[in-house]
Automatic annotation (TrEMBL):
Biased composition (Basic residues): 161-175
Disordered, as annotated region: 156-175
Residues spanning the membrane: 6-25
Name of the featured protein: Tetratricopeptide repeat protein
Keywords of this entry: Membrane, Repeat, TPR repeat, Transmembrane, Transmembrane helix
Domain of life: Bacteria
Keyword Lipid biosynthesis annotated: no
Pfam families membership: TPR_11 (PF13414), TPR_8 (PF13181)
Amino acid sequence: MDNSLAIVYLAILLVLLSAAGFTIFRQIFKTRKTENALSRLQKKLNKEKGTTQEYYELASIYLDKKVHAQAISLFQKALKTAELEAEENVAPIYNGLGYAYFAQEQYDLAIRNYKEALKYQPQYITALNNLGHAYERKSLTAQALQTYEQALELEPNNSTAKRRSEKLRRRLVTS
């Protein structure tokens, strides 16, 4: 009886250790992949002019690392390059730029860039959610609610817009 109980405990311990090991190795590989991309892109862009995609990718890495000032600079370079290359899909660049400004609490600039993203791609759900959040931070509750409702019209199962709009409705009712 004691022997079987010990085997069960050891099996549970082995399962837990395996799960923890898998999670750690997965995170290591993900970090290594990001660091390799960062290194490759930095070297390339320091030596020569890059493409819109390369500037965007490096800026996104900087956003993940919370180096917002450098991300803003790279998003702006991506926009200039996109203009030269006559790139049409610039909405994600404007959205990323807006996110970088939002992270630095420059909400007016964030709002401007989110709106610019929506000019290029009016049904860009992520930009709508981000714009609504920026309006919330600026205490523009009515605009935020309207933006979330617009996102819900385009994507009725949008959990972010549902949750935020319900919260704003409750806030408007109690005010």
